[in-house]
Amino acid sequence: MLKKTPLLIAVSVLINLTGCTSETRDKQSDIEYRKLSVKEYRDKLQAGWLGQIAGVAWGAPTEFIWKDKIIPAGDMPQWKNELINSAFYQDDLYVEMTFLRSLEEYGLDVSIRQAGIDFANSEYPLWCANDAGRRNLRAGIAPPDCSHPAFSNCPNDIDYQIEADYSGLIAPGMPNIAIELGEKFGRLMNYSDGMYAGQFIGGMYAEAFFEENILKVIDAGLKCIPHECQYAEMVRDVVAWYKANPDNWETTWTLCQQKYREDPEYQKNSNGGIDVKINGAYILIGLLYGEKDLDQTIIISTRCGQDSDCNPSNAAGILFTTLGTSKLPSRFKENLDLETHFAHTNYNFPKLLDVCEKLARAYVLREGGRIETETNGEEYFMIPLKKPTPSALVFSWDPEPITNSLFTEEEMAKINHKGFINIQKAVDELLPGWIVSNCGTDMDPGFRETYKGKENVIVTHPLSREIPCVLSTEIDILKDKKTVLKALVSHYDGGDWDLIIRVNGSVQKQITIGKDSVNNDGWREITFDLTPFAGNKNVKIDLENKANGWAWEAGYWGDIRIVNE
Q: Which CATH number goes with the domain that contains 431?
């Protein structure tokens, strides 16, 4: 049972604040500042976290039950006040606290590589882009390559979008900080639109401390991402469709479905309903058609479907921030447990607010601002007004070259969960003499007790679209003997892969291993005559598990033998 302490008693920010924000220009430096009292900052910061909690808790029972369908009004859960304490174990919240911890522990200039090490060491379960990025990190693929489309099937998944709230909550009126944090933490798991989405969310939060007009908040977020990216196009579309159909959110939902789910041009590098553009559209539909009504914003964003707890969490977090905790109804705040820690973190709710305020103070100063104390003892942030500078435009289907970034031995020693630590050991036991290299992280390569009726199977996966996983050996091929390579191989149902046999670097044989090329039991024995190389010593043989379409391309190895007949 959670211990519940009234928020009004424990956190002294719930006062009615008026007139605490303004813009002013320093006549000597001609710099324009935004003025925000620390008291109001704390009030709105708290509201932003409460909005996230309320949104994810309310929508949780519906998550991914309605796909490409609007949730019927009668199936929308009812809000209950005790739900405010049901989000301590939600990944929508605790993952972003990993990023806060890195900033708290290593400072504002923590490197992306250290951020990657911290994320690799996280203990919680992950899915989609988060899982792919963390597995890459644990395998030694350092950022920024860990989220590059060459190593991940999930560049445009929703993950950083649902985790980016922190980046604006610690950067009131400082959109460039939200952009910077996207490049540092968003690149651990997402790329292109997947990262831009989080920067957009962070930019909206940064503006929400000063602006209640949702259209202006959205416009501020839009200025934080490249104009030409598909995510920005989606934002402009949803705003335009809202203005054309201000009284019917289902019409706008249908237009989103037609363009961002059914048009192949907007499904490139997409994982279907987890794609960031369609879920980002549902955040905006809730914010726009909710008309600043707290309940309706969450309900509409939830009823849009797909990731229907994450989306209302973002929407409510932004809306609640515009209002501040002092303007929230008691049902969203007064029963909050202030002692329980969020799962996998060092933070309970008061500690979470404290670390955010600490970081916000540091960012204000780093951005050239000031913290002033007036004669009544009240502190104010004086925040320089700066134009956002978006990240460079890249597309996940036409990405930048990889940087060949790998963790050093010293860095790998800091990672407690190393990917594929047993795969070579398994190969040594089951396929003695063979060495595995360039094994990717998808589909959990390693040892399988059984697969398709065969015991003791090794699973490999290409490192990227271009770089195959390779099993290699060197042998002396005897004279006057027929020497044959035999390999028993299989594939994942629904996928296939190319087996390439090289001898001394030269391609000798290539065959696609899939449903149309295996026997009824799902396996196929491949034979290759090595006799033409008889009499040669130290002959290198490579067996490549090569990608041909980047979908379920694990290679399954039941046996590899070189025999003399």
A: 2.60.120.260
Please state, in angstroms and rounded to a whole number, the distance separating the CA atoms of residues 103 and 97: 10
Using alpha carbons, select from 151, 30, 170, 231 the residue that is nearest to residue 465.
Answer: 151
Q: Give the model's confidence band at 5: pLDDT under 50 very low, under 70 low, under 90 confident, else very high.
A: very low
Residue with tokens 């980002």: 280
Pair (431, 344) in one structural domain:
no
φ/ψ region of 105 (left if φ > 0, alpha if ψ in -120 to 50, else beta) reads: alpha
Please give the Cα distance from 227 to 18 (Å, whole number).
35
Q: How confident is the model at residue 271 (pLDDT cuts 50, 70, 90)?
A: confident
- Choosing from 357, 384, 411, the residue where a domain stops is 384
Q: Which helix or strand (DSSP H or E) is residue 486 part of? A: strand 483-490
Give the model's confidence band at 3: pLDDT under 50 very low, under 70 low, under 90 confident, else very high.
very low
As a whole-number percent, the residues of the chain with pLDDT over 70 amount to 95
pLDDT at 420 over 70: no
Instruction: Report CA torsion sign: 296, 298, 299, 301.
Output: positive
Strands of the sheet with 31-37, listed across from one edge: 21-26, 31-37, 379-384, 370-373
Comparing C-alpha atoms, which of 185, 168, 199, 56 is closest to residue 129? 185
Q: Specify if 295 maps to a domain.
A: yes
Mean pLDDT computed over 45-57: 98
pLDDT for position 25? 72
Partner residues linked to 53 by β-bridges = none
Read off φ and ψ for residue 210, nearest 5 degrees: -125, -10
Instruction: Mark which of 362, 384, 406 sits at the end of a domain.
Output: 384
Q: Are residues 117 and 15 in the same domain?
A: yes
Rounded to whole angstroms, the Cα distance separating 247 from 244 reads: 9
Q: Which domain holds residue 482?
A: 421-564
pLDDT at 513: 97
pLDDT band at 255 (very low <50, low <70, confident <90, very high): very high
- CA pair distance 229, 223, nearest whole angstrom: 12
In whole angstroms, give the CA distance from residue 498 to residue 488. 14
Residue with tokens 């009668």: 74
Nearest alpha-carbon partner for 441 in 143, 157, 136, 116: 136
Say what the pTM is: 0.79
Can you give the three-state secondary structure of 285-322, one letter per residue?
HHHHHCCCCHHHHHHHHHHCCCCCCHHHHHHHHHHHHH
Alpha carbon 120 to its chain's center:
13
Q: Given pLDDT bands bounded at 50, 70 and 90, which one contains residue 21? A: low
Unique residue bearing structure tokens 């996966």: 461
Classify residue 162: in a domain, yes or no.
Answer: yes
Rounded CA-CA distance 125/86 in Å is: 18
